[in-house]
Amino acid sequence: MTPSGKTHSPARLLAVRRLSDSVFLQVYGQAHIARGAKPGQFVQMQTSAGLDPFFRRPMSIFAAEPKQGTFSVVFAVVGKGTRRLALAKVGDELAVIGPLGNTFTLPRRCSHAILVAGGVGLPPLDFWARHLLRTGGKKAKPEVTLLLGARSDWERIKVPAARGIRRLWSTDDGSFGFRGTVVDLLKKLHTEERWPVEETAVYGCGPTPMLRALQEWVLAQGYRGQLSLEGLMPCGFGVCSGCVVSGRPEREGYERFVRVCYDGPVFEAGEVSL
Asked: Residue 235 is part of which domain span?
């Protein structure tokens, strides 16, 4: 059984691109997911034809092309499931559930969106950045700044840069761009530019220590912001409660927690305790 409006169907691998030693971009054909995917959402992917590994792996959606019926994921090889997924060949079919989860939102009167990505936190934020550029109609498009962090130059996730997005890099060892963490880069840029609180929104995705530092800074500065959390999601739609985080300190027992897959993965900056 899958949630209403979600597909549990094969997706055919159409293209593979290696972005670094351990990071891959894969393009899949699956029309339902391509039509429904929004920035911040994810899919649950079966990583092999058998039962090992048994659980699917959650993958943030990096891009979706409804007219072509394709969606893309970017992932790093970190364990058995992602190693199996990296071995998939063009033409292979994998069972996928999605799109799952909620999406990023743009607050009113926001003229500048600051997107802060650490490591493989890049995919949903890159998707969101491109979506913001396509926002048309009567609403003015916000300025978009995408800050990207990696441990070193060789670990950077080198995806094509979309025109109109300011992209700035940081590396822990200083081998490319700013020397320091991506949150350090954010603080430096803020000191130089002093963005108006009422017209700025900050978004983040990446490892928990990075998100914790970003959350602390956003709340201290008074900016509106949203965080996309990463974590193990055995089921992907709120049944197993294997991905809970503390999010409701005023409640007791199980009601104190939120499920990353079902209530998120996107949360308001002050909504969860990291």
From this structure: 112-268
End of a domain among 78, 99, 120? 99
> By mean pLDDT, which of 81-85, 92-96, 137-141 is the weakest?
137-141
Select from 177, 221, 182, 173 the least CA-distant residue to 204: 182
The verdict on residue 1 lying in a domain is: no
191 DSSP 8-state letter? H
* CATH number assigned to the domain comprising residue 262: 3.40.50.80
Say how many domains are in the chain. 2
Phi, psi angles (nearest 5°) of residue 189: -65, -40
pTM value?
A: 0.91
Query: Are both 261 and 176 inside the same structural domain?
Result: yes
d(CA 58, CA 243): 11
Is the separation of the CB atoms in 223 and 200 below 8 Å? yes
Q: Which of 44, 64, 99 is the last residue of a domain?
A: 99
pLDDT tens-digit map of 241-266: 778 888 876 676 677 888 888 899 99
Backbone dihedral angles phi then psi of residue 86, each to the nearest 5 degrees: -65, -20
Residue 95: phi and psi, rounded to 5, are: -75, 130
Closest CA to 235 of 244, 226, 222, 227: 244
Tell me which DSSP letter residue 160 carries: P
What are the C-alpha distances in Å from 217 to residues 130, 208, 241?
25, 14, 29
